[in-house]
Design goal:
- InterPro entries: ABC3_permease_C, MacB_PCD, Macrolide_Exporter_MacB.
- It is found in: Cell membrane.
- By secondary structure, the chain is an alpha+beta fold.
- It is 50% helix and 18% strand.
- It has 28 helices and 24 strands.
């Protein structure tokens, strides 16, 4: 029986090669696209999934309030929190702290010296809480002693080649020495990325008791492991009393701690001081919806074409029934056809997916390899899609075809039913609702990305070369070395200006303190102030707009006791205008300062973040970055000159640099990748929908051959017939636009809410989407419509 089904299916495929190719091609592209997206989604959801106790591990989040208003949400807390939680609450089984050496540092081994950014100090309990693979060393003792370190596997190869790193000694800057006591493997799918783990006792030795007991120094990632069955919400309810016990007076009204599940961090956390740039859960969910849309479009194509061919195959069904075929046998035949077509589509889809992995990696930033083809999950998913697709795309056509009455069919009175026509129209509308939504969504994503990349930042970051300040210095000579370096660099004709600062645009500002206005009509409470150390040339180099007062100048020796505020700081400190702020006094941390100038807000971070209240301090000796404004010509020559002068002044330091415009745009990397992936798969979805529309138009034209012949004999022109065949499809596309618009507004507005600065969804987006879908539909059906309209009527009417 099954052999007969297969042979009959192959004959039908051979008889209608065009329809069969459209079916298999549409299904294959749809399945390949969906499988690729599913691999992407699986990878995003796999972050931190390798930890044995992942369900019970949480990170403590720190929120700060002012007058019941949330002013700070941070991924880090205080050194005191981890040991205190472990001591006070029996449900906390284990606790661990990580301290990121902000700005990294120079690591030296023999003649090798390199700048490392991902330097973490870690508690001894790190290996108790987390399940990272320790390739060499003892998990119980690797981070126990001062001046010991664990090196990441790939980092070890940079410094030690193929030699055994164990026992080797490295130097951090010109300060601490560390003995390598372990080699760790750091998977890419982890929200933590580190090159070295330095032992926590070393930090205690260098900093003192504050590294253990400080309350207020919020630079420490705090992780706890709860006992199985413990309720994290119940523990969170105890945090106010915990804060009262260990914090300063009133902290319970200013501070809130909450718990983030470890596996939620990558996709659902975007806090201050994240350990690395996380993914975007909303974007991943949107891609999942695209995968679903593509599958629906592909399966709808099959159902549409199969049911459209029902009239054509009616006589076949009538003859089979007349010679004794039962309904179940007929249904079995058509379901077998669906199984065979879907099986061929799945195999083709896997081959297509394998071939397009490099392109997908380029678009998405992932590093998928063909090894995913051996992943059982992939084949499990493919099997589910095969069975689901066969059922969805086979059952209804089988039911319709097997229900035909042989007497009516063999008399030639069996035509397309009203119900069948209505179903096909509904399915076409469904396809184009998805297509319109994807086109409009792509336009919105593209315009938001363009808005972010082209918006005036309030500072000039073009042609700015940024050099990391030396990590290895002699404090007694550093100032003179910096002045000499600056003087030498500024002599080059292509160098326009030079400035040193603690941060550059594109970086988070980690130096914060409470700040408030002194005097004024009313006493306002302290607020969080973001502080930057700069030199005299910072505002000139970056071309900030001065709103009131002046910038720092070497003509004013007292400027180290003065401060410059941005507009946001002026507003939150309670000054009426920028002019009103000049001459006023503020207290920031322990410093009482006089405001000498106000500058316009600028985007220190990307457009996902709001402006932050920022205070600029004149600190000529305390800098992390040197910014050099250069001309666009002879960049390589200018760079070589600057590198030579840097090596002369700071010979023990690598010349580590970047161009600021590229560095700033890196913040949008995940958004750009999302936009590229979204757009690529939107195009695929539209292509698959167009294949189905092409096939349906072809079938419609063939069914109306005699009607077209009669109309031509009676005087209809080619444009008249083209309009006749096209207008029904175009009406469906217009109706699809009406349905799609509110869906797009709802879902894309949610995505745009992740940006502090965003575009508005304009009517023009839907106008463009409507025009594009109409054009796509028109082009798709026009070939078949014009072909039918130009056919010789004699051929279609010769047997009438």
């Amino acid at each position: 029986m099954f052999k007969n089904y297969v042979l009959t299916t192959l004959r039908n495929i051979s008889r209608r090669k065009g329809f069969s190719m459209l079916n298999v091609l549409g299904l294959s592209i749809g399945l390949a696209a969906s499988l690729l997206i599913m691999q992407y989604v699986k990878d995003e959801f796999s972050f931190d999934d390798f930890h044995a106790n992942k369900e019970n591990i949480y990170r403590v989040q720190y929120d700060r309030y002012r007058d019941n208003e949330l002013v700070l949400q941070c991924a880090t807390t205080f050194p005191k929190v981890a040991p205190a939680l472990l001591a006070d609450y029996p449900e906390v089984q284990k606790a661990c702290r990580l301290y990121l050496r902000y700005g990294g540092g120079v690591i030296r081994y023999d003649d090798i010296q390199m700048k490392e950014d991902n330097l973490f100090t870690a508690d001894q309990s790190f290996f108790d809480v987390f399940s990272y693979s320790l390739l060499k060393g003892d998990r119980a003792t690797a981070l126990k002693e001062p001046n010991t370190a664990v090196v990441e596997e790939e980092t070890a190869r940079k410094y030690f080649g193929n030699a055994d790193p164990m026992g080797k000694r490295i130097k951090f800057g010109n300060r601490e020495e560390y003995e390598i006591t372990g080699v760790i493997r750091s998977p890419e799918n982890s929200h933590l990325k580190f090159s070295f783990l330095l032992s926590y006792p070393t930090l205690v030795k260098v900093v003192g008791p504050d590294a253990e007991q400080a309350w207020g120094w919020y630079d420490f990632y705090t992780y706890i492991q709860l006992s199985p069955g413990a309720d994290p919400k119940a523990l969170e309810a105890k945090f106010p009393e915990f804060i009262k016990k260990y914090g300063a007076e009133g902290d319970d009204k200013k501070i809130k701690f909450s718990l983030q599940r470890l596996t939620d961090i990558h996709l659902n956390s975007d806090l201050l001081q994240e350990a690395r740039v996380n993914g975007n859960g909303r974007s991943v969910y949107f891609l999942s919806i695209i995968a679903f849309f593509i599958l629906v479009i592909a399966w709808v194509n099959y159902i549409n074409l199969a049911t459209a061919r029902a009239v054509e195959r009616a006589k076949e069904v009538g003859v089979r029934k007349a010679i004794g075929a039962g309904r179940l046998q007929l249904m079995g035949q058509f379901i077998a056809e669906a199984l065979i077509v879907n099986f061929g589509a799945v195999i083709t889809a896997v081959a297509l997916m394998s071939a397009t992995i490099p392109l997908f990696n380029t678009l998405s930033g992932k590093a998928l390899t063909t090894s995913i083809l051996t992943d059982p999950t992939l084949w499990y998913t493919a099997t589910v899609l095969f069975l689901a697709g066969s059922a969805l795309s086979g059952l209804y056509p089988a039911f319709v075809l097997s229900s035909y009455q042989p007497a009516r069919v063999l008399k030639g009175s069996m035509k397309g039913t009203h119900e069948g026509l209505l179903l096909r129209k509904m399915l076409v509308v469904m396809q184009f609702v998805a297509s319109v939504a994807l086109i409009a969504g792509t336009l919105i994503v593209y315009n938001q990305l363009q808005f972010m990349q082209n918006r005036d930042l309030g500072v000039d970051i073009d042609q700015v070369l940024v050099i990391h300040a030396p990590g290895v210095t002699d404090t007694s000579t550093y100032v003179s070395q910096l002045r000499s370096f600056k003087s030498e660099v500024q002599r080059h004709p292509n160098v326009q200006s030079f400035t040193a600062s603690s941060e550059v645009p594109g970086n988070l500002i980690y130096w914060t303190n409470g700040g408030k206005r002194i005097g004024g009509d009313q006493e306002l409470p302290s607020i969080v102030m973001y502080r930057m150390g700069i030199d005299h040339d910072f505002f000139g180099t970056y071309k900030n707009k001065v709103l009131a007062g002046r910038v720092f100048s070497e003509d004013f020796t007292a400027d180290t006791s003065n401060v410059i505020l941005n507009r946001k700081a002026v507003e939150v400190l309670g000054f009426n205008t920028p002019e009103n702020a000049v001459g006023g006094q503020v207290k920031i941390g322990d410093d009482t300062l006089t405001v000498v100038g106000v500058v316009e807000n600028y985007h220190q971070e990307g457009l996902k973040s709001n402006f932050r209240q920022t205070a600029f301090h004149l600190l000529p000796e305390n800098h992390s970055y040197y910014s050099v404004k250069v001309q666009a010509k002879d960049i390589d020559q200018t760079l070589a000159y600057i590198k030579e002068k840097y090596s002369q002044q700071f010979p023990e330091n690598p010349f580590d640099y970047f161009f600021l415009d590229t560095f700033f745009q890196r913040q949008y990397q995940t958004d750009r990748q999302f936009g590229q992936v979204f757009g690529f798969f939107a195009l695929l979805a539209i292509f698959v929908a167009s294949l189905g529309l092409f096939g349906l138009a072809s079938f419609t034209a063939s069914q109306r051959t005699k009607e077209i012949g009669i109309r031509k004999v009676l005087g209809s022109t080619v444009p008249n017939i083209f309009l006749l065949l096209s207008k029904d499809f175009l009406k469906l596309v217009i109706f699809a636009n009406v349905i799609a618009i509110p869906l797009v507004v709802y879902f894309m507005d949610k995505w745009l809410h992740t940006f502090a600065f965003r575009i508005n969804i304009g009517y023009w987006i839907f106008l463009v989407s409507a025009v594009l879908t109409l054009l796509i539909a028109l082009i798709t059906v026009s070939f078949q419509s014009i072909r039918a309209a130009m056919a010789n009527p004699v051929k279609s009417l010769r047997y009438e």
